[in-house]
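Query structure, 239 tokens:
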């Protein structure tokens, strides 16, 4: 059993195998647990059936626990998003696309372009927290130990400045995306709960995300031209 701080929420994991403790090193907390999670051996075996490749029980337990965590955090204003988030000068930029269609490539291009000004918060499945701010909302992306096979991420957070919805193109361009298109694309990058109450809470958070954080359609290639197109579009002064 270990306690970890994720998205500034203390979580107690009643793990069976040591993989979880190894994975989550650096996220320790002494705060009382707001959420307590465990999975059964039966759930681990079901996860094995759903996998293409063979994995150890310990690894499968970490997968099950993160899925449960994502659902249990919804009442706390937190959801998981399949995206790569990079921090540049204290502002967060998220890249969203299906697996294998450019998130990691764009992240690496931004790291090369901005150098020491940039760091990866989470390269695969960040936690996004929605909190009140003035008359509106603040969306913050958090790093977690679950950050993709490349292991790109850190125990840090950053306010989200822009979401980039990726498409491949020969000539990079970046333009604002409509709310309807943004919501449709976002739904494909979320873990959808089965419980109606959790679903309503998640939908509310997505509405606040799209209303607060500008979304852009980034037609990108694998060059620095994609970086400059996206950064320029999301950093133009208000007209």
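Result returned for the query:
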């Amino acid at each position: 059993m270990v306690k970890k701080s994720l998205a500034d929420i203390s979580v107690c994991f009643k793990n069976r195998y040591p993989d979880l403790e190894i994975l989550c090193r650096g996220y320790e907390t002494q705060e009382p647990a707001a959420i307590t999670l465990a999975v059964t051996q039966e759930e681990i075996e079901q996860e094995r059936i759903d996998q293409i490749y063979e994995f150890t029980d310990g690894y499968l337990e970490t997968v099950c626990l993160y899925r449960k965590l994502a659902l249990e955090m919804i009442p706390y204003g937190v959801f998981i998003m399949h995206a790569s988030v990079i921090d540049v000068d204290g502002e967060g930029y998220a890249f969203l696309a299906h697996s294998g269609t450019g998130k990691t490539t764009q992240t690496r291009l931004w790291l090369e372009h901005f150098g020491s000004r940039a760091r990866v918060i989470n390269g695969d499945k960040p936690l996004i927290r929605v909190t009140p701010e003035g008359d509106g909302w603040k969306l913050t992306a958090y790093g977690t130990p679950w950050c993709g096979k490349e292991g790109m991420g850190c125990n840090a957070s950053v306010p989200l400045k822009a979401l980039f919805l990726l498409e491949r193109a020969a000539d990079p361009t970046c333009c604002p995306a409509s709310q309807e298109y943004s919501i449709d694309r976002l739904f494909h990058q979320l873990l959808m709960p089965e419980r109606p109450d959790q679903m309503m809470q998640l939908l509310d958070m997505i509405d606040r995300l799209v209303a607060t954080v500008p979304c852009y359609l980034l037609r990108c290639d694998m060059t620095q031209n994609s970086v400059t197109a996206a950064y320029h579009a999301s950093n133009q002064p208000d007209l």
